[in-house]
Every structure is written in structure tokens, then in C-alpha cells.
């Protein structure tokens, strides 16, 4: 099995990709551990601050020592420099807010999953022609489930995941899966700034378990 397929399968199996960023290394690592305890085996850390690269490097160290079955992805990748930096520190997969051709050209020949954000059929076609197989619909709340339903049959070989505004309620999650997505990405609705600020790792763990249970009930 290719690495791209391995990562794709892991994300689809859990049906949820949590994503977060925190400038504090300790908070970053504690959130990672709480997500792992909840049953998460693939997570996206967003490259949105000066400490992102050093924090992610530490996440990889902790993963290698304590959670070998966890896949660590890096998000908000926008250029060649970023992708090279995170590839060197062993990121398992890479996610962008938009399609970046130089990132696709760097990663796909290396059998590394690249999931770009797309919001038009033109962008999805460009990504598919570059070898992308897993597309992030972004921003999900602006596009809506109707968009997913409308384009699904045009792209039968692609997997889709909305990110941005996906809620933790069963109604919202179920509407996305009914529309044809393979997973949902969740950031602040799951790992909120308030929970991070109060270091409420138990609630992050419990809320993540609830969402995973909801998704499994929908899929079963």
C-alpha cells in the first residue's frame, strides 16, 4: 500500500480530522495527547505562527516515542519553502488553504498525501490533473452541502473533506456525509480557543470522543 493510500484510509476510517495550532509547546503537546486518548490517529497541526515548526518537530518526537500509530499532518502550507521544511521533519501529510502547484509537484512524486483547499470546479480539476486524490472543500461553511452534492458525480475518483464551519452536532455532520464527503475537518468548533486557554484537555478529549461516536453511528 502506498503512503498516500495509508494516510487517506486512516482519515476516512476515523471520519474526522481535528486541526489546531497553539503557540505554546506544552499546550500543543497536551492537546495532541488528549486527541490520541480520544481515539484520534490522524491530526492536522496548522502552520500559523512563529513557533509552528519547532512545535511540530516536538510533536513528531513525542509521537515516535509514545504514539507510533499517530499520523501527523501539517496545514496552511502555501509555498515551496514551507513544504520542504516540514517534509524534512517527517510530516506524514500536507494540507493547504488553496491549491499550490509547486507543493503538489514536490510531494506527489514522493508518495506524500497533499490535500489542497478548493472551492470551485476549476480548482478541483487543476488539483486532480496534478495527481491530487483527496480534496479539502474550503471554506466548508461558505460552500455548503449543496455544493458537495452537485459536484460529487463529476469527480468520482476523488475523496472530499469540508473544513471551516463544520459543526459538532449530529445534524450538521450527517448532512455532510449524506452529501458525499469521506471525512470532515474540525478546528475551532472542536478545539476552541477557550478550551486551549483554560487548558481543559479533558473536555477536548470528551468532545472528540462524542464526535467520533456520532460519525461511526452515521457510517454504520
From TrEMBL:
Keyword terms: Carbohydrate metabolism, Lyase
InterPro entries per the UniProt record, alphabetical: Aldlse_KDPG_KHG, Aldolase_TIM
Pathway this chain belongs to: Carbohydrate acid metabolism
Cited SUPFAM superfamilies: Aldolase
CDD domains xrefs: KDPG_aldolase
Gene3D superfamilies with a match to the protein in the record: Aldolase class I (3.20.20.70)
Family to which this protein belongs: Belongs to the KHG/KDPG aldolase family.
Subunit-structure text: Homotrimer.
Entry protein name: 2-dehydro-3-deoxyphosphogluconate aldolase / (4S)-4-hydroxy-2-oxoglutarate aldolase
Source organism per UniProt: Epilithonimonas pallida
Amino acid at each position: 500500500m502506498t503512503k498516500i493510500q495509508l494516510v487517506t484510509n486512516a482519515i476516512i476510517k476515523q471520519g474526522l480530522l481535528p486541526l489546531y495550532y497553539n503557540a505554546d509547546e506544552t499546550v500543543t503537546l497536551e492537546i495532541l495527547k488528549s486527541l490520541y486518548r480520544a481515539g484520534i490517529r490522524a491530526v492536522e497541526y496548522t502552520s500559523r505562527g512563529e513557533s509552528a515548526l519547532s512545535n511540530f518537530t516536538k510533536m513528531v518526537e513525542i509521537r515516535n516515542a509514545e504514539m507510533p500509530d499517530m499520523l501527523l499532518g501539517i496545514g496552511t502550507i502555501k509555498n515551496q519553502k514551507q513544504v520542504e521544511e516540514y517534509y524534512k521533519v517527517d510530516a506524514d501529510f500536507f494540507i493547504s488553504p488553496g491549491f499550490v502547484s509547486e507543493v503538489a509537484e514536490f510531494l506527489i512524486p514522493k508518495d506524500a498525501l497533499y490535500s489542497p483547499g478548493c472551492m470551485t470546479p476549476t480548482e478541483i480539476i487543476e488539483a486532480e490533473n496534478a495527481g491530487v486524490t483527496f480534496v479539502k472543500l474550503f471554506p466548508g461553511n461558505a460552500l455548503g452541502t449543496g455544493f458537495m452534492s452537485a459536484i460529487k458525480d463529476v469527480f468520482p475518483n476523488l475523496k472530499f473533506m469540508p473544513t471551516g464551519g463544520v459543526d459538532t452536532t449530529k445534524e450538521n455532520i450527517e448532512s455532510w456525509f449524506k452529501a458525499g464527503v469521506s471525512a470532515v475537518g474540525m478546528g475551532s468548533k472542536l478545539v476552541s480557543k477557550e478550551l486551549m486557554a483554560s487548558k481543559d484537555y479533558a473536555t477536548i478529549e470528551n468532545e472528540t470522543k462524542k464526535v467520533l461516536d456520532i460519525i461511526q453511528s452515521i457510517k454504520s
